Fold this sequence. Notes:
Blueprint: H1 2-5, H2 12-28, H3 33-49, H4 60-91, H5 101-120, H6 123-134, H7 144-160, H8 166-172, H9 178-183
Helix pairs in contact: 2-3, 2-4, 3-4, 6-7
Amino acid sequence: MDRLADGDRAAFAPLFAALYPRAIAVARRRLDDAHAEDAAQRTMTALFARAVEFTPGRPVLPWFYAIAANETHGVARKIRLAERREAPASSAALVPADGDPESALASAETRALVREAVAALDPLSAAAIEADLAGEPRAGPRSPALRKRVSRAYARLRSALGGLDRADVLDGAPARGAEERVLDGTEGGS
């Protein structure tokens, strides 16, 4: 690793041969075989890209395993997000039509519940949730601080709603975008 950190690209082949099986082993603890291969390849790519950050003389394996764990976690997160996106589409047929009185009642109850829970939050959390649900455009990428504020706000809202997450709240209302209209004040109701 010292040679690679010093810019010797020929050192990558023996390093790859020694570390790739370990990258596969780390990834297989958390992912299926196909995704483990992807995570292992991403680990080796990140290792090569970040070789200049390695301090010669330091132990290689702890540094390598940190990269492998981060890349495996990233692949697992992408899989979870993809599954969440597919789940509402597959369960859409189970939601009653908008004209159904039962779904209209459920929608009104959900809007009232969300409105009460958001109103009970501190002002920063309420504003973060309202902005996120309204889909307000932001200039540039979301900063880590903003993402964390929104994450914590949803955690507080989840706690107030008794364990529901944003997807549950949004999927619970049959009318598309009803929560956004409730939170920005354009929706009537209770």
